[in-house]
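Chapter summary example: a protein plus 2-phosphoglycolic acid.
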Amino acid sequence: MPKIPSYHLFPTAETASKTLAAEIGELVSSRAAAGQSAVLGLATGSTPIPLYEELVCLHRKGLSFANVTTFNLDEYLGLERKHKESYWHFMHTHLFDHINIPPGNIYIPDGTIADENLQGHCLDFENAIVRAGGIDLQVLGIGRNGHIGFNEPGASPEVRTHVTSLNKVTIADAAESFDGPQNVPARAITMGVGTILDARRVVLLAFGGSKAGIVNRALTPGITSEVPATYLQLHDNVSFFVDTDAGAAIEASSPPE
Ligand code: PGA
């Protein structure tokens, strides 16, 4: 049975991010106390930056990431790791360089893989998630076109990690950081919707008025491939953490939690 995700309205992106960081900190430390690992699915983009700042703060206050394994949602194809717009670079700059996660526990799709090896690389990525025991908590952003990861409009719900072409809205939104749409990579590797739906819990972050319309659509009954975030209605443990502006258009009949 489809289920509309719960949503939580926060006054600011910072308060939403602190709440999610505290949840992640609790997961990581309770697993460590039991001698177990915690597996996180991570996102890039401007949205999760305050979350990563807060996780770095928690680390400075004593939270260890020694028992953490991470899987990133996606990576542009054709960018070297050191390219300033690669997600490898983003994740190390904003998080991994500042915490004690073992480098061997970090999984980010490799954007430098040759075409003939891409299928095998995607399969290896999926197998690594299974070997780690599955994703405990997946962090998501949402594109203005409703994409999650790089699962663009038209994506199907059962697809696993794969190569995809970027949608024109996605390219337009990335154009400024790449100094023009012509410099935005045309393709990316992304976890599929099926991969995302296998996570035991999903928290989608959305901040700012540009996300208000799509957040409302994702929380409105009716699953459509044209808005991949509506596939989250197939999962029974999804929360949207939104700030006042991103939540401004929500018409859902259920009140915020
Ligand atoms: P943003 O991107 O965080 O830069 O808004 C979100 C997304 O496209 O998933």
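Key point: The chain has one domain: 6-243.
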